[in-house]
Amino acid sequence: MNIHLDGSNAIHSPREKVYSLLTDPNFISKSLPDSEDVRVIDGSSLEARMKLRIAVVSTTMRMKLRVERTAPPSKATLVAEGAGSGSTLKITSVFDLSGDSQTTMAWSADAEVGGVMAGIGSSLLKGFAAKKVAEIFSGITKAVEASS
Amino acid sequence: MVKGMGARPHRLGVEPLFQSSVDEVSRLVGLKKEELIILEDADRAASELLVSEFEKYVERKYNPEIMGVLKRNNLLGVPIMEEYGGRGARQLVEALFLERMGQTGMGVITFSDVHQCLGSLAVQDWGNEEQKARYLPAAAKGDTIFAYGLTEPEAGSDPASLKTSYVKDGGGYRLNGSKYLISNGSIATRMIIFARPQEGPGTPTAFILDTKDKGFSVDMRLEEKIGLFTSDTSMVSLDDAFVQSEDMLGQEGKGLAVAYSALLNGRIGIGSGCVGVMEDCLNQVKERATTRVQHGKEIARHQLIQRHVAYIESSLEACRWLIYRAALKKDEYEKDLKNLALRSESDRLSAVAKYTASRCAFGSADRAVQCFGGFGYSILSPVAKHFLDARVARIYEGTDEIMELKIASSVLGREFEAYR
Ligand SMILES: Cc1cc2nc3c(=O)[nH]c(=O)nc-3n(C[C@H](O)[C@H](O)[C@H](O)COP(=O)(O)OP(=O)(O)OC[C@H]3O[C@@H](n4cnc5c(N)ncnc54)[C@H](O)[C@@H]3O)c2cc1C
Question: DSSP letters of B66-113?
Fold first, then answer.
C-alpha cells in the first residue's frame, strides 16, 4: 500500500546550515523521535530501532536510514526502510530547500507499507502519518534552529 | 459547483464516493452554493475525525473530539433555521451531511442525530417562539447539547407504556423516573424527557430538562456495549427533577406526537449514516481486495470476493436513493405541514429508508469483514467497527420488527396495525 504526503516548513536558519544538518547522520540520529539503539554507520547512513504507535498498539521496527545528497545545498533524499511485527515500511522523503538566511523546506514523503500494518487502510494510515510527520518536522525545525 | 469541491485532488480514499453522491444530487435536484459549503465542511470534519475516532474506538472510549470538530466546522446546527443561528439545511442536505459523517462510523452519527434530529428539530418543530430563541442558537453553537430521553428500563418498543411521571409544583413540574440507553445522556446539557401525569390516566408530555438540575443524575455510563464505543450511552435518573412551566415542549398530553415526529427526522439521519458506512466499507474492501494477494493473484480477482463487492455496491446504490427520496418527501411535507397524507407518506418512507439502510449497512459490514479475512476480525481493521456499530441501527429509533409492523400497516391500512 502506498501513501503520499507533502508540505513545507519555514526554518529560521540559513539554507547551507539547514542542508548540512539535514544530511548529517549524527544530527539525524539525535532528532529521530521514539527511537533507541541509534547507530551511525558512516557518513550517509544510520540504523535505529523505532517505535511506531497506532492507537493503543505499538510496534518496534529495525530501520535503516540512508541520506542521498542529490543537489547540495537544495535537494536531498532520505530513505528509511525497515521491518518488524509482521509489517514492512519504506519511506522515501525528498527535501527541497530554498531561501538564503531563512529557509523554506518543501518536502514530500512516499511510504510503502506492507503486512499487518497495511490492513489498517490508506486513509487511516495517512491520518496517522500526517500526525507523525508534523511531529518529526517540528522536531527537526526546533533542533536545526537550536544548533544554528 | 463550489470552487474546490470537484477540482480538489482527493486527500483521502473516502472522498470519491461521496463526491459522486453530491454531484448526482446536484445534477438531478440542484444544490445551492451554501448547501455545497455545508457538505465541504462535513467533508473536512469527517477527515479531521478519522484518527481520533479510530484511536478512541480501539481504546473503547467515548470520543470527546466529535463535539469539538463539529463545532469548529459549524456543523452542530445544520438543520436549524438560519434565523435561530443554524445553517438552515433542508432534510436532503442534512442527509448528505450525515452520509459523509457516517463514513467515520456510527458513533459520530449517533451524537449528531440525537443532538440535531431528535433534539434541536423537536424544539424547532414543537417549541414556541421563546423556546426556539432560547435553545436553538445555543444548540447551533454547541453551548447546548441535546439528548432524547424516551426509552426506560421497562418501556422500549412500546413508549406509550413509559412510567416516568410528572406532577405540578408551583411554577413548574417535578419529574420522577428512570431513562435507559440514552445517547449523549451524560454529556447533554438539555434532555427532552417524556413523562406521564403522576395521577390519572393522561398520556405522556414532553419537557426540556436542564441536566444541571439537582434532581437529575447519571446512574451509569453504559460502557459494556458490543460496539459504538465512541458514543456516550447512559442511564439517568430523575428524582424530583424540576422543569419550569415554560419548558413544557408542545401541548400537555401530546408528548408521543413530539416523540414520533422527532423519530421521523431521526430515522432519515440514521439511514443516511448507514449509507456512509456502506461507502466506507466499499472503499476499504476495494483497497484491500486489490492489494491482498492469495493463490497468486489479488483476492479481488476471485469471483466469490467479487460477489461481496457487488452486494455492497448494490446495497449502497439502492439505499442512497431511498434515503434521498425519504428526505425529499420530508422537505415536501415541511412546505405543507397541514397535509396529513404527506406526513404519513413521509413517515412511511423514513421507516422504509431506515429499515433498509440499517440492514444493508450491517450486511455490507459483514461482507467487508469477510473480505478482510482474519484481520477483519480485529478492531484495528477499518471495517470491524462498522460491523459492530451498524448493528445498533437495527435496534435504536425503532427496531427492525417495529419498522416492519409500521411499514406493513402503512400498506395494509391502520386497521391492521399489529402493535395495537
Ligand atoms: C446504543 C443505544 C443507544 C440508544 N439511544 C437512545 C436514545 O438516545 N434515546 C432513547 O430514548 N432510546 C435510545 N435507545 C433505546 C432504543 O431505542 C431501544 O433499545 C429500542 O427502541 C428497543 O427497545 P428495547 O431495547 O426496550 O427492546 P424491546 O422493546 O424489549 O424489544 C425486544 C425485542 O422484541 C421485539 N418487539 C417488541 N415489541 C414487538 C411487537 N409488538 N411485535 C414484534 N416484535 C416486537 C423488538 O423488535 C425486539 O426485537 C438506544 C439504544 C441503544 C442500544
Answer: HHHHHHHTT-SSTTS-GGGTS----HHHHHHHHHHHHTT-HHHHHHHI
**Residues of chain A contacting B12 with CB distance shorter than 8 Å:** 123, 126-127
Report the SS3 class of residue A6: strand
Name the residue facing A1 among B54, B55, B291 (closest C-beta): B291
- For CATH 2.40.110.10, list the domain ranges present in chain B: 147-249
Burial of residue A113, with CB atoms counted within 10 A of its CB: 0-12 exposed, 13-18 middle, 19 or more buried:
buried
What is the CATH architecture of A2-147? 2-Layer Sandwich (3.30)
**DSSP letter, residue B161:** G
B383: its cell numbers: 471495517
Q: Which CATH number fits domain B18-145: 3.90.226.10, 1.10.540.10, 3.40.50.1980, 3.30.300.180?
A: 1.10.540.10
Q: CATH homologous superfamily of domain B147-249?
A: Butyryl-CoA Dehydrogenase, subunit A, domain 2 (2.40.110.10)
Please say if B15 is a catalytic residue.
no
Centre a 10 Å sphere on the Cβ of residue A120 and count the other Cβ atoms it contains: 24
Is the CATH number 3.20.20.210 carried by domain B255-414? no
Let me know how long chain B is: 420
Place of cell 449517533: B110
ipTM, two decimals, is 0.81
Domain range summary for chain A, segments of one domain joined by +: 2-147
Provide the residue-wise pLDDT of chain B in tens; the chain has 420 residues. 333 444 343 333 335 678 888 888 888 999 999 999 999 999 999 999 999 999 999 999 999 999 999 999 999 999 999 999 999 999 999 999 999 999 999 999 999 999 999 999 999 999 999 999 999 999 999 999 999 999 999 999 999 999 999 999 999 999 999 999 999 999 999 999 999 999 988 999 999 999 999 999 999 999 999 999 999 999 999 999 999 999 999 999 999 999 999 999 999 999 999 999 999 999 999 999 999 999 999 999 999 999 999 999 999 999 999 999 999 999 999 999 999 999 999 999 999 999 999 999 999 999 999 999 999 999 999 999 999 999 999 999 999 999 999 999 999 999 999 977
> Where do the CATH 1.10.540.10 domains begin and end in chain B?
18-145
Q: Which helix (H) or strand (E) holds A94?
A: strand A87-98
- Residue B381 with chain A: CB contacts under 8 Å: 119-121
Alpha carbon distance B59, B61 (integer Å): 5
Adjacent-strand bridge partners of A6: A108
The DSSP string of B12-75 is STTHHHHHHHHHHHHHHT---HHHHHHHHHHHHHHHHHHHHHHHHHHHT---THHHHHHHHTT-
Q: CATH 1.20.140.10 spans which residues of chain B?
A: 255-414
Choosing among B14, B51, B293, B377, which should be mutated to test the A contact, i.e. which has the most A CBs within 10 A? Answer: B51
How much is the pTM?
0.92
Nearest-angstrom CA–CA distance, B406 and B404: 5
Is B58–A55 a contact, with Cβ atoms under 8 angstroms apart?
yes
